[in-house]
Amino acid sequence: MAGKYRMCIGGDWIEGNDYFDDINPATEKVLAQFPAGSAKDVDAAVAAAYDALPSWSGTPAPARARILLNVAAMLRAEKQRLGRLVATEMGKVLPEALGDVQEAIDTFEYFSGEGRRLFGHTTTSELKSKFCMTVRRPVGVVGLITPWNFPIAIPAWKLAPALVCGNTAVLKPSSDTPLCAYEMVRILERAGVPPGVVNFVTGPASTVGEAIVKHKGIEGLSFTGSRATGEWIVKNAGLKKVGLELGGKNPVIVMDDADLDLAMEGILWGAFGTTGQRCTATSRAIAHRKIKARLLSALVTRARMLRLGPGVAKTTDVGPLINRAAVEKTEMYVEIGKEQGARMLCGGKRPGGKGFFYRPTIFTDVTPDMRIAKEEIFGPVLSVLEFDKLDEAIEIANSVEYGLSSSIYTRDVNNAFRAMERIESGITYINSSTIGAEVHLPFGGVKGTGHTREAGILGIDEFSNMKTVYVDYSGKLQKAQIDVKD
């Protein structure tokens, strides 16, 4: 029998009335059981966060930052254990799982440095004897709703800037990976985060998630997940400060002058790393007509060699999908691709046996209007499209509703700069895959991806409000604009 875990509200670890199973996607066995929280639990968590807010926001930012640095050190000390947990609970292969933890380490280290900065601006006044500046203030109580595909890294992306800016939080992790989030909260607790500053509530989106989104005591909300959910949040969150990161349909353009071996490696990694379960996954390869056949041959040969298995196994190249629904969604899109006239070159089926596995799948003869070329699948499916001129490739790249990541492989600097300028995405890589974001640079997209920027200095913007301060030391009433002489 898997162990039962608890939620954390106001520093107290509490049991639930009902529990749900946390499933190992490679074996379909129960790893743990977590409370199916309620709206009342969210109310209690918000109240605890509100009570903790004055003390935490009043703590000097460098002191808050030292706690973040403690978190980074503890994550580093636990990296191997946590990496195996990510590989077990989420399913990604162990090197990627360790990278997930490393990303959290880097994130807490980076944002600990912001505790010595949290820059505002100073500027001149239009009036004499008057000083003008901006300062950062916390948003307040923030709700953080995180996905399952980066179960350590994405909570870190939200928690670190939120905490260093002086906010308190209610964290709701995905019900597919609550154990990783639980371990993160335990580390925060040991690192010195005071009771009530981070509250941990597990349970379904239909109760816990909805209560967080609609709660009037929550002043900021950060969500990573599907576009459909993001649209629902926008309609229901009220006047909260809302940050949304909503997925992608990311293209790699391969020019006829590209290093094809390098392009093949980048596409293979982008399409089938994390079993295609990244918002930045390479789901479309847009290949120049002259090199398409050679590129396809190399991709199919290598894709057929990829070994499926549990993420913790050293021999595994591609782990399982997160759950049965993800397998069924992938199967549905594969059938749609075939029905709409795309030609499947490899994959397209489950391997059999236990676990939520699906073979890496490549389609050719794909046109931009096909659903597999437009809609986010979030599985190991790559669509290959063809073009003759770069303008056509960029038009294809921009023909979807998303705009997160993009890439071009070329030896021509002119092609590279045209792509940088004209592809509609928040991220563009040159001669590299669509995945591989670094924590000190902003991360986010445009169009249907949303317009949030996490990581880097813009992560501070997401979790702080700018306050403008005027200091008038003239000793008399001055009226801006009115007192300015022509």
Average pLDDT, all residues: 97
Radius of gyration: 24 Å
Shape: globular
Major β-sheet profile: 7 strands, mixed
Number of helices: 15
CATH homology superfamily of the largest domain: Aldehyde Dehydrogenase, Chain A, domain 1
Which CATH architecture of the largest domain is right?
A: 3-Layer(aba) Sandwich
Portion in beta strands: 15-25%
Query: Could you tell me the number of beta strands?
Result: 20
CATH class of the largest domain: Alpha Beta
Write a brief structural summary.
The protein has 486 residues and is α/β, with parallel strands linked by helices. It has helices at 39-58, 61-77, 79-89, 94-114, 153-164, 178-191, 205-214, 227-236, 260-272, 292-305, 324-339, 371-374, 390-397, 413-422, 456-462, and strands spanning 3-4, 7-9, 12-14, 19-23, 30-35, 122-123, 130-138, 141-145, 168-172, 198-200, 220-224, 241-245, 250-254, 282-288, 343-346, 361-364, 381-387, 405-409, 427-430, 464-472.
